[in-house]
Amino acid sequence: MTAISKEVKATFDTTTTEGKIRIFNAQQSSGVSLKTLQTGQGIEVEAVLQYQDVTEEYGAPQEVTITVLYGTDGVLYSSISNSVADAGANLIDLFAELGVDSLPITIQRNKSKSDRDFITLSIG
Q: Taxonomically, which superkingdom (predicted)?
């Protein structure tokens, strides 16, 4: 099996001891899966982390982007969804651009044309 590059993107400094501990804890903890949350449920998010890993959740092993939302309540919320990964990448940029300490994120559950459930994130 090929080793996966653990490239990390985050809203916090990943080179400090605190940052490395936050990454380690996120990678070792399953946290709360975003797919268990209901439409309209809100999370006050203080940080976002993304990294690559391999999952077998859909059968064969495949590389995915794991997105972790750090709630101000101390809970880690995670997802391997592509739509959440896209939103997470945008959130990382937005945190830097706005210079904010946290953002109110709302969970939206949707159906694709092929009738599959997927999650999107909105601010507010």
A: Eukaryota
